[in-house]
Known about the structure:
heterodimer; A: alpha/beta; Rossmann fold; five-stranded parallel β-sheet; three-stranded antiparallel β-sheet; 8 strands; B: alpha/beta; four-stranded parallel β-sheet; 10 strands
Amino acid sequence: MAERERRLTRPYGGVFVARTRVMNAEDIHRAVRRMAHEILERNHGVDDLVVIGLQTGGVDLAQALAASLGEIEELGPDDAPVPVGVLDVALHRDDIGIRPVLPEEVTEIPVDLDGRTVILVDDVLFTGRTIRAALEAMGTYGRPRAVQLAVMIDRGHRELPIRPDYVGKNIPTRRDELVDVTMIGVELGELQKP
Amino acid sequence: MNGHLLSIADLTRADLEEVLDVTDSMVEVSSRAIPKVPALRGRTVVSLFYEDSTRTRLSFDTAAKRLSADTMSFAVSSSSVNKGESVRDTIETIEAMGIDAVVVRHRSSGVPAQIASWTDAVVINAGDGWHQHPTQALLDSYTIRSHRGSLDRLHIGIVGDVKHSRVARSDIEAFTKLGARVTLVAPPTLLPPSTSPWDVAVSHDLDSVIPTLDVCYLLRMQRERMTEALVPTLREYTACFGLTSQRADRLPSDALIMHPGPMNRGVEIASEVADRPNAVITEQVANGVAVRMSVLFLLLGPGRAALPPLDTPAATVTTTLDSGETK
């Protein structure tokens, strides 16, 4: 029995009950490496790349992706590592007032985004509204040359014309299901209200 | 936090910490090249100041604008109040224009609470008489927390005219709720008749308290509120209760010097002391904007009605699958 505790994005209450495990830690690791290769292929290296993880699910993935990029490009300790940022889009969401939204963590963008290529990283791509908010939020930090989107899970049900550039795995889901992504696995389940 | 912000007494420790946590994000927003987020687009915030204020009003105004709310300012000197309009009629008039929040300052205690009973808009107390000034207490708490990590077990001295100070009344409640130990230092004439509702110590001797302080919070000598002869002369007050250079030297090296402003340099604080590196007075003003953004966002922003109460533990994930198994 694998039991673990995790805080769901505040201020949601409820208990997440996992039904199926669709990826394990190794699967995630392989998917990250493949996405890193795809990113390098498309951008011809790591020059001017910035990896930005979305709060909170994208943060660990962004770290892993940046580490993987550095490994594949064989960046030594003297080379500048691929910069990694963290973006909290709570204040830019269009559903403030419709559902509970609170800032989770402080945004940290380590470099000026002007002229850079941003790899936006999130765990699950669902309606696309978080990504819309992220695109808007990024506008206050500069004007990137290009923005590409990497997600571990694309679960469908888009409400906006947004499409990922790099996908770990496509998983068809029902709307009321919940996909839980951590670095140790991806699980599909339901949120049971308290 | 729910409803209005009228008094620190209405808030729990969890509420206070929530405001301070969200403030971290607001400080980051304020540091951006374009310090503006769309969080409160389409909301209207009115500031209704029946008493002089520059920093609080500008601070609320800036906070609302950084969150993209529309702001209306109501200067009493140029309004119908001069023609004899009552507070209630003023409120009903501006409410009819469609507003989401009123920021109120009034020279009489309890006016914001009274207004809250008349209107559906969110009422934020920006200072009422001697009663409360909750956002000041929040920004003071935030300033201390940003330097010391937490207020837990810090020793905070609040020095000066506690009797006439709404800042002191708010600070005492906020600091003690956040776990700090508070000592009031003032001559008996500048203390309220009773301090027993608060969990505080009282001293009349600043020199004996100084070496034990983590924060020395100086209150302004409010000459405009003083109608009786409570101190013989200001010079005598400075000699006994002012933070002079000699006293400031005896503070622990990491102690913070704070003041709600505007300062009477040379009265409660020596001019040179106010410019020392551990005097965080201008930082308090800067944090004021972020704290007020946090308050406005928490009261006007998210659909809070649907939320579980804050004291319920965070959601727990139960996984009932066998580990390592991939389906």
